[in-house]
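[Q] Does anyone have a clean structure-token version of this?
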Amino acid sequence: MNTVDHFLDKFFNPESIALVGATNNPFKMNFQLMRNLLRLGYQGKIYPVNPHSKEILGLKAYPALADLQKPVDLVVTAVPALKTMAILEQCAQVGVRNVVIISGGFSEGGDEGRELHENIGAFARRNGIRVLGPNTLSPVNTSKHMAISFNVIKKMQCGGLSFAFQSGFYDPKMNWIFSNFGVNKMMDMGNKVDINEVDALEYFHKDPETEVIAMHIESLHGNARDFFNLLKTASRQKPVIILKSGRTATGSKAAASHTGALAGENDAVFDGVLRQAGAIRAQNLEEFFELAKAFQMLKPPRGSRLAIVTLSGGEGVMATDSCEAHGLSFARLENTTHGKLKRIFPKWEIPLNPFDAGICMEFHLSDIGAFFDTLLAIPEDDNVDCTVMQMPPTLLEGRDDGPEGSEDMAKAWNAQVVKSLVKMSEVGKPLILWNTSMGVEEREMAVRLESHSIPVFPSSERAIKAVAALNRYRAVSRDG
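[A] Here you go.
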């Protein structure tokens, strides 16, 4: 485990956690907080705190923090808002310096809640306590097998992608995130009574285990100049993807309804500063996750020259439009590449880029391995920086209405397709696919491919948009 010289390291790598409000009642939200830590195999001590229980989920329970009689790195409190100040006071008395407040009802909870929010912030500052939240679910550290969440987390997939959110909208998506991304750390900043986006960016920038940073921000609570100066430095070393919601006046008011803070940033100015800093802006939630996937799986291409491989002429036209719309160019394939590809041509000449593999495949279904070995000439071409390809067809597995041996044939076909595409990606240039059928069997194929860092997108337009973001980042990265 790498340690980072930053106060947030104790939030992500605590040796002990006290859960205030832990419960044995499976019908209460707090039940999963401790259940997840036990199920995932959290590598540290867990101290449930509840004055009405002697034991919770097999662990000794304590009436109050003062009864622990041992130091605790992190306190996670999930008691009602009006009882939270008393917990902070106990933390100060026993020397706890790191607190997560899960409860809501503070700055978003009317005049009384806003006053409580301000009082907690002032008390924490006076007593040297760092506070994450309130109204938060986090942190998550996959290498520590630690996740503070209300949802049943089945498994974690480790990687180099770290998320910082300002809203709990991600928590119901937790299992989807772990199924689709290699995650390092996750943090929900909540209502930011103390810890804010500047702290999160600073920590992830320093963290050697974080390779890609993805941040959701509704409003800036930290110093804007500090944030953008840090963003400019961090973006040159790691891709930073930012989703800024609350962009409109109505959206800003909606954000205030659950965070208590009105976003005052001019969106056009915010957008311009992000571009100057070299950060990658996502326009919506779908794009946020798609860009995170692209940057997690791929290095930026060495240039903007694309080779497009399709299964139909219509898809080729749409991909061509997207390529030009996003400022990318078409690779001019070399004569030697033409000579290699001609082996799988139909009886007539066809364009090399976009390359219609569908018409060629019709004549080579009996030896799909040799067909893909020929396609390998495209990414190997020195004039190609990146290959964007439509998902090859899959054969259904597990069918009971086909001829004898059809299931084995389907498995062999699909395995050969995956093997061949992996071989194409091993040339060392980005290979990106987009969906063809959008069926269940195709999604299963996509999961196999993404396990080999070959991202699959819903359409050619979205795949090419991700390539364009990778290419733009190349100009500001440390290797660019």
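[Q] Thanks! Anything notable?
[A] Confidence is low (pLDDT under 50) at residues 255-264.
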